[in-house]
Each structure stands twice: as C-alpha cells, then as structure tokens.
Amino acid sequence: MRRIARLLAGTALVVAAAAPARAGTGSLDLYPSSVVPGAQVSANTAACGDRGSAVGDASAVGAGTFTLAPSSHNGEAIGQFQVPESAQPGTYEIVAKCAVGKRQVTGDLVVALSAAHEQVQPRGSVKTGVGGGALGTDPVKTAAGVAALAVAAAGGTWLLHRRARGDGI
Question: How many angstroms separate the Cα of 28 from the Cα of each of 61, 62, 144?
Fold first, then answer.
C-alpha cells in the first residue's frame, strides 16, 4: 500500500513541477522550418503580447541577430533572417527574447543540403609510403614480405629466449 502511495505522490510532484514550465513558455515558429543555405526564414511568436517586440538570435546558424516587430496577425511579433550560404547541415536553435519582460522563446531550424550544395567526399588514396602502395598489388611480393617478417619475428623471439636463460648469444 505504501509503495502505491509513494508512486502516486511522486507522479503528482512530477506533474506539478512540469506544469508551470509548460504553461506560457510559448514558442518561436520558423517558416520554413527546414531550409537550404541561402534561404530566407520568417520567425513568428505570440509570446511577447499583442504589441510586443523581440530581438532574435540566429547566430547558431551564422545569421546574427534580427528584429521581431509587432504585427496585426494574431498579436504576433514577426521578423526575418537569411541563412548564410556557408551554413552546414544540421539542426540549429534560434532564440528570441521579448523586449518587455525579457521572456525567451526558441525554435529549431533544420539546414539541409540541396543537389546544388552537395558535400564533396574525398576520393582516392594518400601516398604515405605505408600500406599496399609500397609493395604493389603483386601477391608473390606480398607473400615474400610476410614470410620475411615471420622469419625475423621467430629469430628475434629465439634470441631473446636464449638470452633470458643465460646461454648468451
């Protein structure tokens, strides 16, 4: 019985603690929420009140700050910024801070590469003098090299074993 009471009390505490955090946090809506580098993005929030304005921060994606001004559209503050051409693919958090009350809201912006912005992957090999390029692809030479290494390892082991026994070299 006590176990059930503790479980219910713990659940009630978690719900009570989470409720104020969710109530009125608002959000920053980004249109479009998924873009390619160079695209224009609109940011909207109703969290600042009917005539509220805000300062947006898109520096995470490299766009810097922007202003959200009051609009007649459902009491929202609206602003725009441009995603730089140099933006890398990923998800970025865009933040807006209301001028009055200093309330902060966030939204996620996804940057994806289009066909014109495809990432170039390196190809080929690096000539370091180590690896298959040193011996070539001839199987006879490769087998001879492996055999030489095996003989050297066996000989070294035999010499170390003799020395450890005190037989000398």
Answer: 15, 18, 67
